[in-house]
Structure formats: structure tokens, C-alpha cells
Amino acid sequence: MIVDDQQATVAFLYNPAAYGESGPVEAIETHISRIFLVGQRAYKIKRAVKLPYVDFSTPALRLAACEKEVELNSRTAPGLYLGVRRVTREAGGELAFDGSGELVDAAIEMVRFDQSKLLDRMAVGGELTPALMTDVARMIVRYHRGAPEVHKGSGSSNLAGVLAINEAGFATSHVFEQAEIKAFTGIFRTALARHCELLDRRETAGKIRRCHGDLHLRNICLFDGEPRLFDCIEFNDQIASIDVLYDLAFLLMDLWHRGFPELANL
Questions:
Q1: Measuring CA to CA, which residue among 3, 2, 14, 4 is closest to residue 95?
Q2: CA dist., res. 266 & res. 258, Å (int)
Q3: Distance between CA atoms of 158 and 155, rounded to whole angstroms?
Q4: Could you read off the pLDDT of 142-165 as tens digits, one per residue?
Q5: How far apart are CA 234 and CA 74, in angstroms?
Q6: Could you tell me if 147 and 215 are in contact, meaning their C-beta atoms sit under 8 angstroms apart?
């Protein structure tokens, strides 16, 4: 659900003069964000939406989410995230970065990197090598080992919560029919029941941690020659507070889907 009008912000960010640039501004859109590419920088805003799993319905909520995104991702992609810029409405009605007027939006400022260095693009180009994926695996291990443990219920109840969010998300889309959603949900819950005991043991052993939450190939890039995780789930701690193997499963699923089972196994 769209909850407020961001047209003024979008127009402002499409104007290269807003950044002190003269070159063109390119835009990338997802279901919950917009990214504006200009010069050597990228600026990301949260779409003004309210969904079962995310609430960006006010400027204050979007600012808080931007600040949290920078904080979390700076740990796994040092140097990529530069900070948060407040978008304000000044006395004459014009918008500005970090002015003294009313807050109308917030943008994350990032270093613009070569899109061909996204691992999903590298997969399409046949550039994923065993050596690179070994480096990626070691980086993920270091990240998971340093991530804080979360003990807020059993391992099976944790994953049940994720399935409930997924079901609610499916219900807001037009991709699947209601009968398909019901079938998916039934399959998921049957599998969950089969693995409850193992999931509970893993929670007791500290395997549920504050993870990335969206660890597919497009959210890993080569930056300064090193693989970096970015664009983690910052807007919903429940989605990202998961078993470390569930976090890793995003990457394995993506590799299998793209025809690289041997790299997934590696």
C-alpha cells in the first residue's frame, strides 16, 4: 500500500543539480526502494509503502530505516556506505539536502560501483570461479561468527514466524492465486513440522543470529577487489533474526537456480 506522495522527492533526486552534478541521473527501482545513480555516487530512498513486513509510511520511519541500513551494512561492506542525507523542504518550498526545514524524506549516500561486479551479473557472464566463491564462503563464515545470537523462542517457532510473514507477503501480491498460496503454505508447514526437533536444538546451540536476511547473489559485490555483502534486511528484525543455515540457503538457492550446483556444494 502506498501511503504518501514522494513525487517531489523523486523529482528532486532526478535533478543532477541537487548533487552539484551536470551529468545524467539513472534510476533503479525495486518494490520497496529507489536508487539514483549520478557521477561517482548512488542515493537510495525507501518507497513510501506500508506492507505486512515493512512500514516506511512516514519520513521519520524512512529516516530511521536509512540510518539502520547504513549501520548494519557498514560492517560487511566497509567504505561502500557513506552516510544518510536528510531531504528537507526549505522556506521557499524547494527541497534540499540536509537543510534547516521540515524533513520530507531521507536518502542513503553510497559509493557508486561497477554494476558488472554484482555477483548475479558475474554469474550470467560465467565469471564465478571456485576461488571467488571460496572467498565468499569464508567471508560469510566470518560474518555469521560475529553476528549476535538471538534467543527469543525455539528454533521451530522462529521459522514459523518467517513462514507467517511470507504468507502475508504472498497475499498482497498478484503473482500467485489464493489456491497456490494455500498449497505453498501447507508444504512449508509440513516441512517445518518434520524438522522441529532439529531446529530447536540449533536454537539452543546459538545458531539463530541477527543475519543478513536476503543473501542472494545480487546482494554480494566485488568492491575494492574483495567480495562484500550489502543491502541486508534492516526493516524487519524478525525476518533477519534467523538460523545461519537459513541465511546461507538464499545463496545456495540462487546458485542452484542459475545452474551452478557445483558452486553451491563448494
A1: 14
A2: 15
A3: 5
A4: 999 999 999 999 999 999 998 998
A5: 12
A6: no
Q: Is 149 helix (H, G, I), strand (E, B) or coil?
A: strand
Residue identified by cell 534467523 is 242
Neighbours of 107 (CB within 10 A): 26
Show the beta-strand stretches assigned E in the chain.
26-29, 33-38, 41-46, 50-51, 54-55, 81-89, 95-97, 102-111, 208-210, 220-223, 226-229, 241-243
% the chain with pLDDT above 90: 89
**Contact call for residues 131 and 237 (beta carbons, < 8 A):** no
Amino acid at 93: G
Q: What is the pLDDT of residue 74?
A: 95
Quick one: cell of 37? Answer: 545513480
**What pLDDT, in 10s, does the model give residues 76-111?**
999 999 999 999 999 999 999 999 999 999 999 999
Q: Supply the pLDDT for residue 23.
A: 85
